[in-house]
Amino acid sequence: MNDNKSAYNSGIYDKNIVSTLPYYLEYHNQIIDLVKAIGIKDIEWLDTGCGTGTLACRVFESRDDVRFTLCDPSEQMLEIAKNKLAGRDIRTFTVPSQMMTFDSEFDVVTAVQSHHYLKPDERRQAVANCFRALKDKGVFVTFENIRMTTETSDKVALKRWENFLSDNLKDPDIVKMHINRRGVEVFPITIEEHIKLLREAGFKSVDVLWTSYLQAGFWAMKE
Ligand SMILES: C[S@@+](CC[C@H](N)C(=O)[O-])C[C@H]1O[C@@H](n2cnc3c(N)ncnc32)[C@H](O)[C@@H]1O
Known about the structure:
Blueprint: H1 10-17, H2 24-38, E1 43-48, H3 54-62, E2 66-72, H4 75-84, E3 90-94, E4 106-112, H5 120-133, E5 134-145, H6 151-169, H7 172-181, H8 191-200, E6 205-211, E7 215-221
Parallel strand pairs: 1-2, 1-4, 2-3, 4-5
Antiparallel strand pairs: 5-7, 6-7
Helix pairs in contact: 6-7
This protein binds S-adenosylmethionine (SAM).
């Protein structure tokens, strides 16, 4: 059985994720660039669903005025994150987003590809917990799988992902496994639904940060 909810066991996650999620490294680029532009210094940063800690590693490449709090329900993912970030200012918690209890502690909260496993009420709770975890004027950035607005457009988007997977992974059975997880193990929602969810959690400033045919990033400020 898999040791986390992604398609890959922790030990092979890093090796495979770039060929599975188009633009994976671009999510981090966008987050790092946004946080730089907002201009926060000496950042308390919570990354929930941190997986193997790649975002934190990327952040530390360009700045060291950050203390990371890394949360994930998978012990195995967190172990890898801890090893990759040895010597860095981090602390870890084995907890899913919908169970976090942080209150007004963070300047930045990120959740990258970690809430699309959740049922609607759990997802609402997860986003509410990210909102509560932020200090006033803090920023929440989330990247998630998205669904297109109609069945017709969603089919085209899914076909594009299937083509990407076929080109990169080669094995038709593995491609099928990924496609078949949609609606069964992962539950993408539309951009409009994401924006509504963020507004309902209490965020007033809610914007799309970046989008492709399969994922979108959103940034929301607590003010
Ligand atoms: C696709 S990986 C993304 C990891 C990392 N954020 C990245 O971008 O590489 C999904 C991660 O979400 C975690 N996860 C699963 N359910 C979660 C939940 N309810 N709350 C937070 N993280 C969750 C998994 O353990 C896994 O580490």
